[in-house]
Amino acid sequence: MPDDLRHTDRVAAALAQRILSGMWPENEKFPADTELCVEFNVSRTVIREALRLLSGKGLIVAVPRRGTHVTNRQNWALWDKDVLNWLEDANHKANKYDFSADALDMRLALEPTLAALAAARADEAANDALQGALRQLQQQTDITAHTAFLAGFYSAADNQFAIAALPLAFYSISRRQTPPPLEAYRRLTAAIAQKDGAAARQAALQAILSD
Fold first, then answer.
1. Same-domain status, 67 and 123
2. Which of 1, 15, 44, 113 is the most exposed place for a label (fewest CB within 10 A)?
3. How many domains does the chain have?
């Protein structure tokens, strides 16, 4: 069973990357299961499980007597953690779709508001956690520390929908070409601790635009 699960994940990732890169465009009909079995050297059970996984993410749809097709982009669960990981692993040089700018747009819409919420709602524990994450990021500016800081920031807003948006933020910062915006994050952390919503909004906006 563990081997089947690993094969399922491998096949699902490979097929998803073909969709997300535009290699298989919207409404493209999938190859027959037997062809995929041969290509990936796996059983039909593995192929069906991989297709079920992609269907659950909105990437494909199976229609009786018409086969399996790539769905339209508006159906894709682009905020889903698995989909964003597949997107990150896709061959971006051949990518028909550029999602980086769209992800940045969503952060611009979300994070200033989350900063104001955090300034109003963060308790002592949330502030301590955010300050600790900032210190770690100042010492080690890698992607792990960066994602930990953002996780602390989103958590401080005390909103469950905000937590669900974290994978999108993680995808966005993984595309950064510059170091983390430490000064903006320092001001953001201070503004949240001081319950200054306006300053927190401005710092969050500056952090995003610093790339």
1. no
2. 1
3. 2
Dihedral (C-alpha) 91, 10, 45, 74: value to the nearest 10 degrees?
-40
Host domain of residue 22: 2-78
The answer to whether residue 89 sits within a structural domain is: no
Domain of 25: which CATH number?
1.10.10.10
Report how far apart, in Å, the C-alpha atoms of 124 and of each of 36, 59, 120, 145, 204 are. 54, 42, 12, 21, 20
Q: CA-to-CA distance for 54 and 49, rounded, in angstroms? A: 9
pLDDT at 1: 46
* Tens-digit pLDDT profile for residues 61-79: 998 888 999 999 999 998 8
- What is the average pLDDT across 136-165? 95
